[in-house]
């Protein structure tokens, strides 16, 4: 109740009176009072489930009208690794193509409700089943490559595996990268002895840049560095069946001019790696 009062900039008693008035009108208790705390009753849960979507629609319609058609703000959500490795190298290109759009980057993870969390567009690196409540469209396969410094590019894959220590990432989303790549190339998984292990891909890539080892990672993350000659990769690119790249759009904003333009740019920019 206190949090609701603060969010609406009204008093605690005003919230209590509004709820009491609504319960009187509906002739049922929406909340169960337990000492100083409250929880939704079964009737309250059912009522919220039915009216919640309508209230969200009203909120979004009101916000759009208050912002005006000239508003060019847009919230784009993606995991931090995509921001660092894919989005930032392309910001200039986006701003050149769509100079009037003011993009706000969000890094929410897990189960996201785009409408409820006011996200216009989400660039997803993951699995479709994680987004069953959203309408998503396929962008590109996730492609794994063995990345290393350019000065060792002349060596064979086996020579690289024999002479350079493998770098591992402990993030659960990265745990199968080495195994998937090695299985495709019919080579044994490198032993994790005297190797470097990091929590995040960005740390592993920095270690590769310093010549500390080799790493199996996502081509889209290193594409710019490869094209600039800062990094190189060896062996065949391998399709990662565990993950892919997808696009989701807030259904309440799907017809917005800026959302449509951003969606089109993302589909053009996120072309398949190979």
Structure description:
Helix 4 (80-87) packs parallel to helix 9. The chain is built from ten helices and ten strands. The chain is α/β, with parallel strands linked by helices and 274 residues long. It has helices spanning 2-8, 12-26, 42-67, 80-87, 91-97, 157-163, 177-185, 201-209, 219-227, 257-269; strands at residues 31-34, 37-40, 73-77, 102-106, 121-126, 136-148, 167-169, 196-198, 215-218, 232-249. The N and C termini lie far apart (54 Å).
Say how many strands there are: 10
The 3D shape can be described as elongated
Largest sheet: 6 strands, mixed
What low-confidence regions span 5 or more consecutive residues with pLDDT below 50? none
Straight-line N-to-C gap = 54 Å
Radius of gyration: 25 Å
The number of distinct helices, counting runs of at least 4 residues, comes to 10
Order of helices and strands: HHEEHEHHEEEHEHEHEHEH
**What fraction, in percent, of the residue positions are helical?**
40-55%
Question: What share of residues are in beta strands?
Answer: 15-25%
Q: If you average the pLDDT, what whole number results?
A: 87
Class from helix and strand fractions: alpha/beta
User: What strand line-up does the widest sheet have?
Assistant: 4-3-5-10-6-9
């Amino acid at each position: 109740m206190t949090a609701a009062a603060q969010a609406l900039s009204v008093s605690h008693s005003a919230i209590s009176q509004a709820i009491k008035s609504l319960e009187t009108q509906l002739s049922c208790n929406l909340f169960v009072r337990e000492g100083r705390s409250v929880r939704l009753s079964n009737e309250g849960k059912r009522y919220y489930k039915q009216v919640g979507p309508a209230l969200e629609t009203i909120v979004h319609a009101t916000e759009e009208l208050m912002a005006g058609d000239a508003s060019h703000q847009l919230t784009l959500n993606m995991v931090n690794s995509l921001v660092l490795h894919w989005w930032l190298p392309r910001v200039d290109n986006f701003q050149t193509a769509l100079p009037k759009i003011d993009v706000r980057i969000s890094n929410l993870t897990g189960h996201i409700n785009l409408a409820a969390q006011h996200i216009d567009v989400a660039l997803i690196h993951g699995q479709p089943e994680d987004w069953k409540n959203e309408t998503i469209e396929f962008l590109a396969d996730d492609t794994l490559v063995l990345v290393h410094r350019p000065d060792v590019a002349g060596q064979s894959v086996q020579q690289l595996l024999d002479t350079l220590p493998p770098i591992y990432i402990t993030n659960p989303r990265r745990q199968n990268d080495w195994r998937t790549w090695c299985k495709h190339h019919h080579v044994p998984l490198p032993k994790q002895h005297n190797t470097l292990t990091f929590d995040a891909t960005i740390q592993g890539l920095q270690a590769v840049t310093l010549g500390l080892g080799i790493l199996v990672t996502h081509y889209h993350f290193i594409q710019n560095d490869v094209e600039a000659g800062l990094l190189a990769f060896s062996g065949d690119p391998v399709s990662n069946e565990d993950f892919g790249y997808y696009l989701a759009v807030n259904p309440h904003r799907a017809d917005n001019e800026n959302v449509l333009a951003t969606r089109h740019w993302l589909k053009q920019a996120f072309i398949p790696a190979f």
